[in-house]
Amino acid sequence: MTLLRDRATASNQTQRRVALLERLVDVILREGFADASVEDLARELQCSKTTLYGIAPSKEAIVVAGVRHFFRRAADRVEIRLLRTIDDPLEQIRSYLVAISEQLAPASATFFADLDAWPATREIYQTNTRAAAEKVQSLVREAASGDQNAAFVGAVAAQVMEAIHRGEIETTAGLDDSAAYRALAELIVRSLHPSDEAGEA
């Protein structure tokens, strides 16, 4: 019985930690994190600093845990969306990029600026961007049936994705994240199938 109780307690603690991370993600996406103290975060979350230190022992570690949770959650949701997409590589490219846009939509420019400013969070961001670009490249290879340009298209996609994340596309082209990802998807599709008209739908 003691073992069962211990397992139940551990499960409850895990659930509480995940729930707190979810709330932390909401705050840092909206407000950023570089200028916030642990006290500021605790006030926003309406919890004690001790509760926050239950996530990690320092502000940086707490933020890193939140950022990692955000990108892991986003990746899981994007993959689920992709699995539900029809088995058409071109449509999967569109679906994948639009799903990424939807997950990033709540993030403020301040969040992305802070993300890039901290080495630890920038590394998480870059790792996830590389993984997403590799996935796009894989989908491109499928759609292109071994086209040698797939690696180049994947590299271009990675650069554009980073520019979207930093807000540069919105500044220079006037496209929000969702529109920019859709435009990138159409650009890739048209580069693989110039005569394809499906992107106009």
Automatic annotation (TrEMBL):
The keyword Transcription regulation belongs to this UniProt entry's keyword annotation: yes
InterPro entries from the UniProt entry: Homeodomain-like_sf, HTH-type_TetR-like_transc_reg, HTH_TetR
Pfam families per the UniProt record, alphabetical: TetR_N
PROSITE patterns per the UniProt record, alphabetical: HTH_TETR_2
Keyword annotations from UniProtKB, A to Z: DNA-binding, Transcription, Transcription regulation
Domain HTH tetR-type: residue ranges: 14-74
Residue ranges the UniProt entry marks as DNA-binding: 37-56
Entry keyword Transcription regulation: yes
PANTHER family reported for this sequence: HTH-TYPE TRANSCRIPTIONAL REGULATOR BETI (PTHR30055:SF234), HTH-TYPE TRANSCRIPTIONAL REGULATOR RUTR (PTHR30055)
Descriptive protein name: HTH tetR-type domain-containing protein
